[in-house]
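User: Study the chain.
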Amino acid sequence: MRYTITILIALFVLYTQATVAQQTKGIPVTYSFVYGDAPLELERGQPYDGYVFTTLRYYISNIQLYDRGKLQWEEQNSYHLLDLSATNTLKLNLAVPESLSYDQIRFHLGIDSTTNVSGAMGGDLDPTKGMYWTWQSGYINFKLEGTNPACPTRKNEFHFHLGGYAAPFATIQTVQLKVSNNKSIQIIGDISKLLKDIDPAEQNTVMIPGKEAVMLSRKAAGIFSIK
């Protein structure tokens, strides 16, 4: 009898420990965009330094949380397509251990090479999302489109489709941001930082992997900050 009770107590302890270990909390992560000091709106009537934006879409992947330089948590199957025209996609919720503490978030801007060569996939990676070229070129990591009267193109349109996973033109970037609390993360992207020093009369179309795509991808990774 005592042996049976001992076994039951041990099982109860193991069950309790497992339950505690599985307790999680949700950390909301929101992305918003500005152009300098002004909130960014698609197809706004008043241009931003001549720019009118019609499309802003990009991939976030491999989300990780660090504390004092040490990895504390990483999201599994971490691929998110964010689209300014669909505001629900700009809000993520990270299910992390309840006791987790962190002071930095890291993520990739774009899709890693392994996923690219694995072939087209489902969910946010589905080719029907309009962010996939071909198996040779892979995914478009960052897409920005619109118009500017200085563009000598059809209807004054500009197209920045930044992608490419093969060396020497791999465009995936790592973004690292310090955070000040463990309850929520608000990330701002300032598109003016991407377009700074770009002359739309000269640089208005990037739609294949190459040096321009790499350069603009590095600038795109620098637009993010914590609110």
Notes: DSSP finds four helices and 13 strands in the chain.
